[in-house]
Specification:
alpha+beta; Immunoglobulin-like; 2 domains; three-stranded mixed beta sheet; 2 helices; 28% helix
């Protein structure tokens, strides 16, 4: 029995090492400097994660001179919204606006540099 347990833990150890190696290979691959085609860049999804810690539902906008509605973030939840590719050309400076439904007190983020494929996060604190 003892030797069987050792072999199981050895198998577990080998599996963990293999998974660790795959994660490392994935991380190195994602950091590669291989040139990407314009099609690849255009197909990348740029997202905004909204951590709405307030009770109010919020309409979320992106602004680059004019407001573009991204969607709604429900109160006390996290929401992932897609930023339209038309807003993100090269590296773009955006501001995000959280407009509470039923109120006129919108909050505006600082300016944030955004590139295609980025995942940005903002938090809306409780009142």
């Amino acid at each position: 029995m003892r030797s069987q347990r050792r072999s199981e833990s050895t198998d577990d150890h080998m599996i963990r090492n293999a998974i660790g190696a795959l994660v490392l290979v994935g991380a190195l691959t994602s950091c590669s400097s291989a040139p990407r085609s314009e099609v690849d860049i255009l197909n990348e999804r740029t997202t905004l994660t909204v951590d709405n810690q307030s009770f109010s539902d919020m309409t979320i906008y992106a602004s680059r001179g004019q407001r573009v509605r991204l969607g709604m973030a429900r109160g006390k939840s996290k929401t992932v919204l897609t930023i339209p590719t038309a807003l993100v050309t090269g590296t773009t400076t955006l501001q995000f606006i959280a407009d509470p439904i039923g109120s006129s007190r919108a909050s505006v983020s600082e300016e944030i540099q955004v590139s295609a494929g980025d995942s940005i996060g903002i938090a809306i604190p409780p009142p």
